Every structure is written in structure tokens, then in C-alpha cells.
Amino acid sequence: MTTPAEIGLLGRILGTFKWAWGRIQQRLHRLGDLERRVAILEKALARCPSEACPACGGREFRALKSEKIEPFEARRVHFRCKDCDYEDFLVRPVGQKLQP
Ligand SMILES: [Zn+2]
Question: For 11-53, what is each residue's pLDDT tens digit?
Fold first, then answer.
């Protein structure tokens, strides 16, 4: 036979489980959002992860071409942002890799 004190205890335990279940569902929802955001970022960064546009901050700032600067042992690398059409170039010695 269940006493009123036991019923009260069961009610508090049930309330605790409902609260915990709500928290778990919130965390699972948040985890799903984060997984979707990470997937979008991984896709955006898959090709060339280090190039952010200095003008708009977009991730579409790409090297277009590289040309040798005569008579120096250097190359001029041209960049353009696909989002805002900002263009820039840098000059680097031949053989030097671009820094991220
Ligand atoms: Zn841009």
C-alpha cells in the first residue's frame, strides 16, 4: 500500500526525470545545430581553409593567377573575392609557400 509520503516522493522523482529529460532534449537540439554548422564550415573550408577576404571577411578570397616578376626571383600572386570582388596581390620569392 502506498502512503501519501511515498506518493509525494514519487511525484518529486517524476518531476526530476521530466526536468532532466527536458535538459537532455535541449542539449540534443543544440548538438544537432552545432553539427549542421560544423558541416557548413567544413564544406566552406574544404578547398582552401586559410583565405578570408580582408574586405568583407568572406571565405571566397582566392588566388587567381601567379606570374613571375622579371628579372627578380619573385612571383606576384593575384587574389579576388568572389563575394565582393575585392582584389589584391602579394609578391613573394620564388619557392616560398603562402602562409596561412
Ligand atoms: Zn570579400
Answer: 999 999 999 999 999 999 999 999 999 998 888 777 665 678 9
Q: Are residues 36 and 82 in the same domain?
A: no
Beta 74-81 vs 61-69: how paired, if at all? antiparallel
User: 76 CA distance to ligand 1 centroid (A)?
Assistant: 20
The alpha carbon of 80 and the centre of ligand 1 are apart by a number of angstroms equal to 8
List Cα–Cα distances, 19 to 29, 30, 47, in angstroms: 15, 17, 44
**Residues near ion ligand 1 (Cβ under 5 Å):** 53, 55-56, 58, 81, 83-84, 86
Q: Give the CATH number for residue 74.
A: 2.20.25
65 plus 99 within the same structural domain: yes
User: Distance from the CA of 88 to the center of ligand 1, in angstroms?
Assistant: 11
| The three grid cell numbers given for residue 83, joined into one nine-digit string | 563575394
